[in-house]
Automatic annotation (TrEMBL):
UniProt-recorded name of the protein: Thiol-disulfide oxidoreductase LTO1
């Protein structure tokens, strides 16, 4: 029993099949032969489906970076807030005592609120927004568009505040270096540029006016808060201390008196100030005002 079945473009032959019992039904599936071109196209389609997109292999998303940077800033401001609450001095590996001079100055408070507390809130908000945008999971009433706009507005205000603080640091703290201030400025500027990069040129044009208003409000608020603070340079220059005589109340040792006599003989001169505590100590040791005037 030989039969030939045609299905699609392929032919199936069953001439070699053995004799089948009576009433046995034979099902033959159609076979479709593909041309070599169709096979290559199918392979290329499967390759496209299995090849990952560049965005999936690029690692952290930009919003993930925002969350990480916001977390670093939150840790820094938390440490500074702890120091503020405990009245402790900050460890400054680069600026030395300059960090304490800046962090404990009147410029470290805005409308009665310490700057580290404000920084904790700002960096915490950015970190939470970055996580929500990276996972694309938002609470009720907030979608991705609103989240992106809030992140951009927050980073804009932080960058504007950091730029103003750098201006204060360079003008009112001449020669001082604050590692925490510089680190916070770097984090704020990084957050601003990363969040801005996620907007197209058309979107930036639409929100440009709003961002300028936010930056202007931040600068105006800081200027108002600091308007009553007297600049450090002028306050030091205008310091007027009344003159007073220093009194020598100790007796010098024979060695100190001989040293004072020797200094007087060689024409040595002492330069000091009446308010200088170290100058008074030298006078007490050498008994200068009673024995030798030089």
């Amino acid at each position: 029993m030989a039969s030939c079945f045609r299905g699609g473009s392929g032919i199936s032959s069953i001439s070699s099949l053995p004799s089948l019992p009576h009433r046995t039904r034979l099902s033959v599936l159609p076979v479709k032969c593909l041309s070599s071109r169709q096979s290559r196209d199918s392979d290329s389609d499967s390759d496209l489906r299995t090849t990952p997109s560049p965005s999936s292999t690029s690692g952290f998303s930009p919003y993930g970076w925002c969350a990480g940077i916001g977390g670093v800033g939150f840790l820094e401001t938390t440490y500074l807030s702890y120091l503020r609450l405990t009245n402790s001095d900050a460890f400054c590996p680069i600026g030395g005592a300059s960090c304490g001079d800046v962090l404990n100055s009147d410029y470290a408070v805005v409308f009665g609120v310490p700057l580290p507390f404000i920084g904790m809130f700002a960096y915490g908000l950015v970190a939470v927004l970055g996580l929500l945008l990276a996972r694309k999971s938002f609470p009720i009433g907030i979608n991705e568009s609103y989240g992106r706009l809030i992140l951009l507005g927050s980073s804009t205000s932080m960058a504007a505040a950091s730029a103003y603080f750098l201006y204060i640091l360079s003008t009112n703290f001449s020669g001082a270096t604050c590692s925490y201030c510089l680190t916070s400025a770097l984090l704020s500027f990084s957050l601003f540029f990363i969040s801005l990069k996620e907007f197209s040129v058309e979107e930036i044009q639409k929100v440009l006016g709003v961002q300028l208003c936010i930056a202007s409000l931040v600068v105006a608020a800081l200027s108002t808060s600091y308007s009553s603070i007297e600049p450090l340079s002028s306050s030091l220059a205008e310091a007027n201390l009344p003159f007073f005589e220093t009194e020598i109340t100790t007796s010098s040792s024979p060695f100190a008196l001989s040293l004072a006599k020797h200094l007087h003989a060689i024409g040595a001169k002492m330069y000091g100030a009446f308010w200088c505590s170290h100058c008074l100590e030298q006078k007490q040791v050498l008994h200068l005002s009673l024995t030798y005037n030089f």
